[in-house]
Amino acid sequence: LVPKEGADASPPMEEAAGSLPPLFFGTFQLRGEEASRATQQAMELGYRAIDTASIYRNEEDIAMGLAASGVRREDVFITSKLAPNEQGYSKAMSALTSSLQRLNTSYLDLYLIHWPGAAKTPLESPANKRLRLESWQALEDALKLGMIRRAGVSNFCVRHLQELLACSELVPCVNQVELHPACFQEELLRFCEAHKVQVQAYSPLGSPAGVQSLLSNADVLRASKEEGVSAAQVLIRWAMQTCGSAVARSSNEQRLAENLETTQLPELSESSMNLLNAITKTDTQGNRLVTKYCWDPSGVA
Q: What is the SS3 assignment for 137?
């Protein structure tokens, strides 16, 4: 990718150190004018981190919203992701270049392998491992070329991370996974902490409203009352205290503002955290019985 005259230049690699911003504006299922408008509103409200993906098909819309906001590129943390049908070295390099072009930027702050499996590949096939390791090599090279500042993964289980760490000296800086009080992935959190991989929570509010929604869970509502904040703020705050960073989506300006306000709230009390942690029950061996509202990668070879 040859940057346009006057386009943003990739910051030096040494500036890439440090943890993620605590809250990202999520864009899953936002497209077209809605995505552009919500992106502009988010930036105007004060968001400075945004999460998208090739498979969301909204990168161009987001670029339009960012441009309309007037916020400088260097002041926004942008994450995008490699889709399952883009796995493999050559495809990954091409996909990254396309994402950069659609987002009208010469670099990404963070690029993730979105899923441990490859599209149209049986879950049990060893091709999944081969292709994701090829993709990881592409991300390593993209780092050296200045196309990305950080490389990470999404939806990786402990086993997937172990295989990656055994084959590469580059440790993923992030593993973005479903994480909320009903999906308290304690083993994964411990493993990532031990190997200096930051976990980032997506879907911190759990399921969509009306589908066993965490927003109406009795313990969440109890914590909300005790803390004097909304149920959504309790759940986002729980995610930020549990792993340090969360991705929350909305196209409603009022909810966008409410979510962002969470970053300025005091930490939840120990009693509230314990109450929320206990929503994910344990079996007789002490293993967490998580409830996944999104996708389960555990079957991917």
A: helix
Contacts of 148 (CB under 8 A, 6+ apart): 96, 107, 108, 109, 110, 111, 139, 142
Encoded tokens for 271: 């009693």
Q: Catalytic site residue 56? A: yes
* pLDDT per position as a tens digit, 163-188: 999 999 999 999 999 999 999 999 99
Beta carbons within 10 angstroms of residue 146's beta carbon: 14
Tokens of 293: 């509202």
DSSP sequence for 14-48: GGG-SPPPSEEEE-TT--HHHHHHHHHHHHHHT--
List 47, 56, 107, 111, catalytic entry: 56
Contact between residue 214 and residue 234 where contact means Cβ atoms under 8 Å apart: no
Please tell me whether residue 3 adopts helix, strand or coil conformation. coil
Tens of pLDDT, residue by residue over 124-151, are 999 999 999 999 999 999 999 999 999 9
Residue 208 CA to residue 68 CA, distance in Å, equals 30
Q: Where are the beta strands (DSSP E) in the chain?
A: 23-26, 49-51, 77-82, 110-113, 151-154, 174-178, 198-202, 246-249
Please, which residues have CB within 8 angstroms of residue 178's CB and are 6 or more apart in sequence? Answer: 155, 185, 201, 202, 203, 292, 293, 294, 295
